[in-house]
Amino acid sequence: MNIILFTTADGRPGSLNLSRPRIYLPLLGLVALVCSLLMYTGYRLGGTAAPAVAVVPTAAIPDLRADLAQQQHAVEQVRRRSQTELDALAVRVAQIQAQIMRIEGLGQRLVDLADLDRGEFNFGQAPAQGGPIEAVALERALERPAPTDFMQALDELSAQIKDRERQLIVLEDIFQGRGLSLQGHPAGSPVAEGWLSSFFGVRTDPFTGRPAMHEGLDFAGKFGSPVVAVAAGSVIWAGPRDGYGNLVEIDHGHGFVTRYGHNSRNLVRVGQLVRKGQQIARMGSSGRSTGPHVHFEVLREGQPVNPLRYLRASR
Q1: pLDDT tens per residue across span 183-201
Q2: 9 is in which domain, residue-wise?
Q3: Which residues contact 314 (CB under 8 A, 6 or more apart)?
């Protein structure tokens, strides 16, 4: 096979004979050189185009799952511990609120006993406070206390409240000694009509059939009949309570407290002053009850005593 070539040097044509072996060898060498250059260039470009992707061995998956489960368990423990601390905090706050409610009722009672100006001694409002704050004090105030420090602060506040309560009780005793008594000694029956259906002491529980302590007297009667206070005092509870249903609790001073449970309707509110014989509720069967009656309790220094002695004292 001949290839005819034309040149411009001398204008004469020339030819290239491809059938001779000396022609193929340079061509094959040139082709091999070009292919080698292309392969080398592709190798270099492929090595720098993207980093290699790390592959996690299959054997490491169980270890990763175990670590994840351990972390989840640790998070759950922290959550449970936080919930326990919050529950304890809620209990302490409820106790302090009950103490403050008791002090407010007692303080209002003392204001009325001494005939003081209610605008000057208003136990229904928070005390007026104010004043500038320094930069250092502000930084300390913005620091979040640890839970243990917060619980300690609540305990200290509760101790202060109890101390103030004792001071108010002493002050009340002084007023009582001056002849400002509100007839606060319990005496008489909490109902005008009805009959004594259960006594104070151990009895057979009407729901379980087992012996159980009954810390009051039950007066059965007509649904909606009046329930009256057996002594003057300040209402420290008026609302539902577990087992009692609708309950009214009155503080009479000198360590005496009376309770009137299972009411169909309470007619007084917390902080209200009531006099002896005043209607405070209507008989009902709310709470743990088998029928219309009043569960009547007398507490002295926080301990239940037999109300029968105070019932007879009025006769």
Answers
A1: 668 989 999 888 899 999 9
A2: 2-43
A3: 187, 188, 189
